[in-house]
């Protein structure tokens, strides 16, 4: 069933939440409030939100180094996210994960990952667990076009297809792997076409169209829940900002970012909603105000949260000491 008015408005608010979180995080990083290294998903919101809108709350998501949007779209609380990005003890990983090792199992977000395509091989493991437990859940793994050229992508898709596991592989093709163009690094051009080699459905779509993303994901999820196995979705999108904060982007011209702004997924859905009489300027302003208030509350919470204590370095660790057995 196509999304109803409430679900469409939720997708609009969801994309706006991701966009404004990312923009605020960039600002906080530039001002030295957030430590470390930062990749954001400004411009790519329709992929995270369209995919997660087709999932159940108990479904799982495996993410990437560009993972804030996936967590927000999966329903992660902004306070826990923001405190984590600050490296604070009240963060969702007690300040030990930060941007690239975020995880929030309470919403099925099994983790961002600094290792490209790692989610592609973790997903069959999660899928196998789902299959054994007969829980009817599904696991989505997000990855970039660059990651699709690494071995784990092929290993993961092969195993998930071979064992008919409930996995949805979602490639966010933003045309670049850092500064390497997709066209210069990807044999055959199409990542979706690789699905045929593993005997599973593969679909290439406009990743700036949240409804197209939702529809394709809903199909893939239905197939996975039926027990028919994995699917591969390639969502074409545009990252508006540098690969990382501070990236001078000498490898690309301004035209691509302008194209991204012209095809802005949020403005596009807003136009559709306005045409159907579901949104007007006053309503849009109200939604924005609510999102901004939520983000500012999360920032205030992160600022006020304590840093982890030195002895916290010795908790949350997994270590096996055979001499203790
Ligand atoms: C195994 C591995 N190799 C190299 C890197 C360094 N690296 C970090 S991001 C990146 C490019 C990723 O491109 P893509 O998968 O398309 O994702 P995007 O950054 O475009 O979201 C690279 C090469 C890494 N993190 N992991």
Characterise this structure.
By secondary structure, the protein is of the alpha/beta class. It has a single domain, classed as Thiamin diphosphate (ThDP)-binding fold, Pyr/PP domains (Rossmann fold, 3-Layer(aba) Sandwich), CATH 3.40.50.970. It has 11 helices and 7 strands. The longest helix has 26 residues. Bound molecules: thiamine diphosphate.
What small molecules does this complex bind?
A: thiamine diphosphate
Q: How are the strands of the biggest sheet laid out side by side? A: 1-2-3-7-6
Helix amount, in percent? Answer: 40-55%
Largest sheet: 5 strands, parallel
The assigned structural class equals alpha/beta
Give the CATH class. Answer: Alpha Beta
Strand content: 5-15%
Low-confidence stretches: none
The CATH superfamily bears the name Thiamin diphosphate (ThDP)-binding fold, Pyr/PP domains
User: How many DSSP helices?
Assistant: 11
- H-E order: HHEHHHEHEEEHEHEHHH
Determine Rg (CA atoms, Å).
19 Å
Count the domains.
1
Mean pLDDT: 97
Number of strands: 7
**Gap between N and C termini, in Å?**
55 Å
CATH architecture: 3-Layer(aba) Sandwich
CATH-assigned fold name = Rossmann fold
Taken from the alpha-carbon principal axes, the silhouette is globular
